[in-house]
UniProtKB/TrEMBL annotation:
This is Phosphotransferase. The lineage of its organism: Eukaryota, Viridiplantae, Streptophyta, Embryophyta, Bryophyta. It comes from Physcomitrium patens (Spreading-leaved earth moss). Transmembrane segments: none annotated. SUPFAM superfamilies: Actin-like ATPase domain. GO terms for biological process: glucose 6-phosphate metabolic process; glucose metabolic process; glycolytic process; intracellular glucose homeostasis. One of its GO terms (cellular component) is cytosol. Keywords: ATP-binding, Glycolysis, Kinase, Nucleotide-binding, Transferase. Its EC number is 2.7.1.-. Residues 52-249 form the Hexokinase N-terminal domain. GO terms for molecular function: ATP binding; D-glucose binding; fructokinase activity; glucokinase activity. It catalyses: a D-hexose + ATP = a D-hexose 6-phosphate + ADP + H(+); D-fructose + ATP = D-fructose 6-phosphate + ADP + H(+). It comes from the Eukaryota.
Amino acid sequence: MADAFKARYSSGAQIRTGKIRSAAACAAAAVIVSRRLKVRSQKCTARKILLEFQEACYTPLARLRQVVDAMAVEMHAGLVSEGGSKLKMLPTYIDRLPDGHERGLYYAVDLGGTNFRVLRVQLGGLEGRVIKQEYEEVAIPPELMLGTSEQLFDFIAKELVSFVAREGQDFRLHAGQNREIGFTFSFPVKQTAVNSGTLLQWTKGFKVNDAVGEDVVAALQRGIERRGYKMRIAALVNDTVGTLAGGRYWNNDVMIGVILGTGTNACYVERAEAVSKWAGDIPKSGEMVINMEWGNFWSSHLPRTYVDESLDNESLNPGEYGFEKMISGMYLGDCVRRVLVRMAQEACIFGTPVPHKLLEAFSLMTPDMSKMHHDDSSDLKVVAEVLKRVYGIQNTTVGIRKIVVAVCDTVCQRGARLAAAGIVGILKKIGRDGSAANGVIKRNTFEQSDMNGFHDEVPVHYTSGGRTVVAMDGGLYEHYTKFRNYMQEAVVELLGEGSKNVVIELSKDGSGIGAALLAASHAEYVIS
Ligand SMILES: Nc1ncnc2c1ncn2[C@@H]1O[C@H](COP(=O)(O)OP(=O)(O)O)[C@@H](O)[C@H]1O
Ligand SMILES: O=P(O)(O)OC[C@H]1O[C@@H](O)[C@H](O)[C@@H](O)[C@@H]1O
């Protein structure tokens, strides 16, 4: 009996166990299936968000051409009158660029959006050129970006004075020469002379409120004198102007200077007579370098998305520098982050809860975006490393990592193609884009509505030019390979055959040397 019972029991138990096992197996299978379905639906949602964002960022050639035209039209409008365009088109009082004859010892201080540099250069004229140069670079203490004007300019003066004190024997002043400085200031300034100008507003991460409206040269001069030093600031230049000057020093075909760094901007050599709003004398050279402040460019043709809206609303300068916020290094990483936040919230791509740091503005810096974007490993291990290091996110699937890379690519490509359209817009304005000899560009109603009553046709004088060199600088252009490639591809797409006459060359740290060269060419004491 017992045996039979055992047998029955065991078989019954076996059956029961079997049933339990199969029920458990079914339950487990059901869990796995539901998990898989959930993961699949999350990925579908993430893909839907990605596709929607890609469509909104799309910059087909036709759209880029509209941006090109809008840039050229707004440049003209900004030259006609103050406030005629969102493009400030600031005369720089630089009406002649370095030509290689410069001699002597000159200094430069260069305040950018992330870095601050002091530099000295010994110039030896055409035969000697740059005999020797030295520079030091320091990261700008973040607290100074939000402090007072005196704190900021004292910091600059302190670094300069300390650098001068370590001049060494290799650098020497000519008899009778005082130390003169080129001051590169990478913010919008209304110049009142070649070596004076008032700050119009802060951009990027700066908000030193009591400096707005201040003459930044006088502010720095006070800082230097507070340290018992007497040095003359011979030129105040925007970093694009320094880059243009540094490029022209070596190559007469340089006509445009562009910065793609923390921020972005462009300057170019304009015909002085085209600057209708200029009340001063027409310079002997017949030319004037214009600081466009193109970061503030705006056109209805720009592909603005919900990401741009939210980024702008939360920025230090809402409603301004919309073009810069779409293409420059300070903002690209945050554009990516904002898309990932939506995917994390709506598709749980990083599990629940959403990693807290992911909600923090600027937590994804563009260098880390660039690292993920350039990850060419099969399992995207670099993407995994960045997500873990920055956000503590682990165990992402390769599929999710691919979506992250696709978001980086979309933001990068849009920025790069828009930068290309900006450059071609300048070429078009100065008649060096290989297009027709003369022409007009119709301004569409939107542009007209946001401009105070301009003609709906804007004459733009083209002359077919020779080779044009664009001197380019900035950490975004220099280090973000895919951005640089996308930009150059778009320039070729836009110019076609004409692109053969356009060269974009990296003029690394040209703004520092350029400022020193402009100090030399505008020095009080001229060395023959
Ligand atoms: N490896 C990188 N990949 C992408 N962008 C980078 C990289 N390194 C630096 N950048 C961008 O370049 C900017 C710094 O630009 P840079 O011209 O060196 O300084 P500044 O903007 O102060 O003149 C950084 O804010 C960052 O956005
Ligand atoms: O060299 P940076 O810091 O990237 O600056 C580039 C541009 O940044 C913009 O925000 C400024 O308004 C410009 O004046 C400047 O040229």
